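Q: Start with the shorter request: fold the first protein.
A: Done. Sequence, then structure:
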Amino acid sequence: MTFRTPGPGRGLGSGRSRLVVPVLVALAVLLIAYLVFTAVWTNLLWYRSIGFSGVYTTQLSARAVLFAGSGLLMALAVGANMVVAYKVPPAYRPLSVEQQGLERYRAIIDPRRRLVTAGALVALGVLTGSSVMGQWPTWLAFLNRTPFGVEDPQFHKDVSFYVFTYPFLRLVLGVVFATVILSIVAAVMVHYLYGGLRLQGPGDKASPAARAHLSVLVGLFVLLKAFAYWFDRYGLVHSERGVTTGASYTDVNALLPAKTILAIIALICAGLFLSNLLRRGMMLPGVGFTLLVLSAILLGGVYPLVIQQFQVRPDELAKERRFIERNIEATRRAYGVDGAQVVAYGTQVETDPKKLRAAKATIDGVRLLDPNVVSETFQQLQQVRPFYRFPDILDVDRYLINGKPTDTVVALRELSGAPAGQQSWVKDRMVYTHGYGLVSALGDQLADGGVPNFLTKDMPASGDAQIKVERPQIYFGERSPSYSVVGGRGQQELDYPDNSAAGQKNNTYAGKGGVPIDSFFHRLLYATKFQEKNLLLSGAINKDAKILYDRTPREMVQHAAPWLTVDGDPYPAVIDGRVQWIVDGYTTATGYPYSENTSLGNATRDTITDTRSAVARQANDTINYMRNSVKATVDAYDGTVKLYQWDTSDPVAKTWMKVFKGTVQPRSAVPKALEAHFRYPQDLFKVQRQILAKYHVTDPSAFYNGEGFWDVPEDPGAKGRRQPPYYQSVQMPGAPGKSFSLTTAFNPRNSPNLAAFMAVTSDPGNYGQIKILQLPRTPPAQGPGQVQNSFETDPQVKDALYKLQQGNTTVKGNLLTIPFAGGLLYVEPMYAKASGGSEQAPYPLMRQVLVRFGDRIASAGDLPAALEKIFGDGPAPSTGGDGGDGGTTLTGDARQAIADLQKAVNDFEAAQRKNDYGAMGEAWKRIKAAKDALAKAGAAPKATPKPTPTPGNS
């Protein structure tokens, strides 16, 4: 047998192979570093392009501090305990099978102990820092917290403690808890590996040093538990144990003292564990720990359950009344509805024919053009070319037309991409870069044929010069491409096709927005970011070129103010000749004491968010405080972002304005021309209407019984989905004139009838004033679904719609509810869309207007004709006491009998709850008397409330 000595080549090859892994690791690290640098630097360039670089650097700094601080805390604490455990091994390890196995592990680990320990600590620190740095809003809000000036009723602490301080303290406790627990785990592992702990063999299973070390760590854990118990007391203001959110009777009288006692027991138990530094033995710590566990079970679990079952449940209203009252007050304040006015309405409906005909003249400006329906019509009549597109849902605003504020439906003609079959990188990214023009139409008038009566239209724009757009190019919009390269010298970007020799009108972007991309370095970065080699290699990118990206209004405002929740429906407005996107920003919180929790996503869902893509759906975040604190604008041409403080009393907004100084302008800086176009935001309104469906009831007893709770009605045109709120100009009772408002209706809980009508005004003079018209309960008024059913079953309407459906498909417009003459007027436009056979895509045209007041229904080709049928020279419509939408004509005696009947029924129900049979019998006699009086008055109600028969009244 011969042995071959490795030659020089083999030795060199072996050396090279040993270098492969380090080189690959170094390359991987460099690649990761480059990608991280690219992401950070391009983000910084984007923030600089809109003038908000401080927002990004503040976030980066906060993340870095939390990452380093929490990571170092974890690594140093765990590392220190591992060192301590390693430095105090037992002097003697008894020989056993267990120790022989551990000896083999020690032999493997000891030569690499420092490397293994360092690697484990670095990984632990990185994981901890990565999880904690995402909590930067909690930390920055705590550092800059602003008092609310309102104290909670239980602990008498300012609300800011629960919104800003309490979450931060819980974060700190969580990090320290995790550090101590991982330190215990690490110490146990090291002690076991080096013999300080044993599972087998006679004698003590722990060395004195290991016992002392672990006793200190467990003592620290129990000490932290004592702090946690103490702070848990304040968390009771968010309890869900009782009838409503907030500390209930059981929480205050059982759980609160239990938490205090547990905190004291935990302190004693921690002292017993720490005493092991001075004495040996685990008996006292064991007794203390057992006492803590038993106390937690008995005091924290069993005792509150006993109180709830045997003290609260038998007399729940009496016990919880004070806490329900706290919840009502806090919830109404937290959601900004404490100033909502609820007024009785519908008991005095005008019946005089002459007065009704005279009042008919005030029914003007009703918005018949439905922005949820006519997108296809705008598309067909004003798209011009297939590479432009309008949103699925158009927007409603108001403009001064001939000196009069007029509801106007507006939309921007945005870009949908290069024509099919003509796509290329240059065309997609450098030619088809922007949309063009605003299209507007009167909301209350339609042109011949049922088409929109356009104010501004065509390319270049023509139409009413009262809405004049000086910069019609839309570089920043809801449908903008993911990125475009614009503004290079000599670059030709398509505006619109025309009849010139060139066949098109071109434009070169000259706005200040965008990031310069005419340098090799920036082109390299963005080629990496968008994974597009053409950004680096293309010769079409000229000097002064810029790249536009992250350019939808919502995401731009969200980036500029990451502390805001952005409304799902930005809308365009023409301000001083420029198209500005107006975006509403909300401050929200989850820590307001005693306030009802609401799912933001569920509260804002309706027909539009469920079926259309133009309106963004909110995340299912749980909140219990909400304010429209910021109004933001985004210039559609150059992307300039401006933030204006709107709610000047909001402490959450003030806190974040301290964090990001100079980013939000004061309310006094809002231009008057801009303020005239501010609308009350839909998402806030939807949340508030969900809250007011219950919290319009302010009496704790009525709230407990659920009396008078409402529901948001189902959309008559989309079964199973909520009816969206509608923008319209309405005149509320007692108001001097019409105001541009956001409106909604309410049904009684689990009933299709009408309970109330709610409107909030957007006019600058009284912006945000909420007014609710509450309808009588008897006789019941008909709700939107019932009104829709009455339209569809009315012979005249059926005949008109039957004719309309010949070769067409009918499309329901918005069913508008309008207060009128002490009752409610319902107006619904009906659209017709060709069923087929047309050379172009069918689109809706308004053909009929359906109107109802009282029990009179009419249908005509326009609103004046329909109103003439109802309020013309014929007999007056029946407008009973149901708010003007059903019932019989009521005399004064009939109305008095109805009032007596309602009071008697209420008294009967109150006596029934108290089991007061004498009072029940007396109330039953009054019910019969009121029914007889109503019958004599000749106007018996449609449905008389029937109390449940009980002994004593049968």
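Q: Next, the second protein, separately.
A: Sequence, then structure:
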Amino acid sequence: MRPASQVDSTSSEPPTTTTAKASPETPPTGSGPAETPVPMVLTGAPTPVTQPLAVVSPVAAEPNSPRFAPGFAAKLNLAVDLVLVVTALLVSTTMMGHDLHLERTDVWVLLGVGILSWLVVGTALCLYDMRFADRERLDDLALISIQVMVVTVVLFLTRLVMGTESWIVALSLFPPLLWPSVALLRLYFFRKLSVQEQPLDEVLIIGVGAMGRLTGEDLNSKHRRKVIGYLSFSNDTATATPPAPVLGTVKDLENILCTVPVDEVFIAGNMLKHSAEMQNAVKLCENFGIPFALPAYHFRFDRARPVDDHAVSDGYLHFMTHAFQPHQMALKRLFDIMSSAAALAVLSPLLIGVALGVKFTSRGPIFFKQKRVGLHGKTFNMLKFRSMVVNAEELKAKLEALNEQTGPVFKMKNDPRITRIGRFIRKYSIDELPQLINVLRGEMSVVGPRPPIPKEVEKYAAWQRRRLSVRPGLTCIWQVSGRNQISFEEWMYLDMQYIDHWSLKNDINLILKTVPVVLTGSGAS
């Protein structure tokens, strides 16, 4: 099937599934590549009515709506594969005639190395990416093959280093046992299970013509993205109702990006008729840090095909405002999970002590839940140990004139709303520790721009909203550069510097710099 963006760009008429007969110039069957069906024109359909932004809200669950949360299949796949790794090691050992000596330390070390190496290599290869089902089956098989080979080599080298006694764990049958079980489950179960997940992203489509309508239908049919609405170009004419509400015109794009969380914008326009408006839309997306997609084809082709089909698999070229490094990002997420889980376990005595101190020294709950703005403007409840009095938000209005921070952020060095224990835990950032739970849940990262509150975001300039293009974090450049001693403008520029030059190495450096800042309480209020 021809991608939506290959619809004849010289016409705004939508095609239907009915096809016309081949013209006399069409060569007979077998003389060349198969001819793409020529779409028929559908007329007389009603023009969609523009709806207000209020209609952009979660759709009620339908009888056939997806049953699982995004990423459920990938997480379950990883858990099952780790069990298969352990099972394959144990079964291969018994099949080679060795007795299982589970009381031996070296056996448990090898099992641990097998699990850890499978986890790290699988993450580095993006084998368990939430969009794994979008890959070709052969690509999945290739990644699984690489994964099994690398883990086998790591286990063999580990066993070699540990000495001859560790040879009791046999590896001869490990690959032939593990590979087919992992591959068959991936191909015939987990890929199908992913279709039952809720959409991963919410997208906005600009253009209500044939290209825009078919793009929306294509995205909806794949169940991976939800079209929240359309914007029309100034000279757009829709002769069929698109599969999502029309929220306005392209002139409303900035307002919508400020008020509605959007993961990506599809600009389904015609370069000949909509070039100026498409350019303005691109500029706005760049300012906001929102990924966007442009049609890959501006001409109609009968036989020509792109050399790299994967680059334009949906008929669009996709763009981001920062470097796309999926493998490093996957390792970053793995580090977030492992470090937050380990920190919660190690710091549990401190967390319990602080919780008791907060509970018995002031009236109110132990935790303070505050709505914050995360990736692409999506809100979540950020957790903190309560360090202020219960009616702190009400008292804030009376203290606005004493704000010591520039911009939309409120900061006071001697804030009267802070409790006695609150001043101590804020100085050493102990009040922030419950956010490790947010990190574990995927709402935050260890390193990233601090998540703002919605009222602050409402006052952001367009370029400042680009800090929402990455997952927020516990620490960033601001925390190690003076914290409350720098201005709001400098703070924003530091966050942009982090986004534009992100790498795993920089994240590690920021974590190492954060430790002495937290221990000394430098720059905190």
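Q: Describe the second briefly.
A: The CA atoms of residues 9 and 299 lie 7 Å apart. DSSP finds 15 helices and twelve strands in the chain.
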